[in-house]
Amino acid sequence: MLSFRMFLCALALTVLAVTVEASTGGGTPNYNYDLSGSDLTRLYNSPVYKAERMKRPLDGTSVVIGPLSHSGVRVTLADGTQWLIHKGGNFGISSETVVTDARHMSPDWRVVKTKDFQGRKTVSDFVAAGGSDYNVIFDNCHLGSRRMMKQ
Fold this sequence. Notes:
The chain is α+β, with helices and mostly antiparallel strands.
């Protein structure tokens, strides 16, 4: 009976890994840059005033079911601009945690938790908390977004 349970657990983890890998692209990366140079440096040094942990369904699905979803943190800066910080396989070049303009977010994203940071942390702090590496089991988008909110 124990070996059957282990088989079911292994099967469930395999399905989760394949589903998440399909959601995160897994193929040829597509790097779009909203900012570069000094504008990017300015963004990374900007204080964060509000952070919202958010989830959306995986690509190709319509519902959020626990870890079978994608999560990230939308931050709001002093000037009111909003940026999504999230991670996934092949999301970035030097880091798998990336920052994108929140205007690119689909309407499928839902707020899970909100926290007021009062400018005590920067966008760079959130990227660092998200982590540079990605692993579908041990360092995925959910774990990265939780670390961002706990800092």
